[in-house]
Predict the structure.
Amino acid sequence: MALPTPSQTVGPFFHIGLRSDGWRELVALDSPDAIRLEGVVVDGEGEIVDDALIEIWQANRAGRYAHPEDAREEVAFEDGFSGFGRCETDAEGSYRFVTVKPGPVPAPGGRMQAPHIEVSVLARGLLKRLATRIYFPDEGEANAADPVLSALDPELRGTLLAREDGGALRFDIRLQGDGETVFFDV
Amino acid sequence: MTDQLTSGGVLGYRRESTDPPYLHPDYVSTRTRAPKRPLVPLAHTLSEVTGPAFGDQPVGELDHDLTRQHEGEPLGERMILHGRVLDGDRRPVRRTLVELWQANAAGRYRHHVDRHPAPLDPNFSGAGRCLTDDEGRYRFVTVKPGAYPWRNSANAWRANHIHLSLYGPAFATRLVTQVFFPGDPLFFQDPIFNSVPDPRHRELLICRFDLEHTVPEWALAYEFDVILRGRDGTPFED
């Protein structure tokens, strides 16, 4: 066995190397079921974070990941849907994706997980990525049964729920302090 | 493995880590950005053991060569950065995307936020990418980045470094790191390098001068292997 290489911050200049052109829209905005997923990143002093990189990873609308380890033939594969998105925050600390709501995916023990999107947050001042999950506000029953969400303290669950906001789905990320987003040890 | 996956059980990735903590007060930006609450442990599910695959991404023929992206050649000490991307059992990670960015030889990034009064080089953008081959190998041609000052504390300078970004096979294996150079006199005062708690693990961030791959009368070579997380040997039990 070999020790893994340590993580280091992306720093403030990652934009030149980690381009997001073509990766902010996982589907075209005019495609059926397209949703706008947007939010702002805020630090422990309530200041917006205008130099973060947000990455998302998700299953397709049927709940299948575009990855060889998701070999469930009975769940529809979708050509052209990679499930990956990348977007830097702008001068207002905002990120914006166009995607679809993923279907439910399996959990260990034969249970199902509620529809969710995996999120990585990278930024100056983050020595390693922060990982979180976005859950959907219209999935009350599935969310209540989700093994990850239901294991959290009830007052923390809300930080992982996106909310409807003017036709978009809004998910703000609070790195530190009041209302701090739940981050996972992945 | 397919049977385990269809029933929802997965082989997770190992938890062994050499990473820095989120809060490292000497690196001032961590003070307002590190979470206060401890991370919530997450047993790996299908969502974490899958991840973006870039194996079919078109990567341009010259994307790995930062010295041939413009009319002329960039100024500076030409160098080759090469190595392998391996998993925690030292097996090659094939067809995985490696992205690189760096300052020019004068220590200046081609980025609007960089105000260091060192010259930009019209022949250097400072970004490249490539896919690893079937043996996990990657190779970049570039110029050695210069050191540069930053405002973390009085008279603070970043040790010379090159940024690397990798995905590996899964959401769980995402890694962004920095490659440093042997014998840098700036190490002792660089809080990002020193954020790695164990000094022996900091050595994993330093490339090795490689005479064997140094091309005579053309470019110095440095070797740097990237080790991504290894995988558990047994299925995860709920």
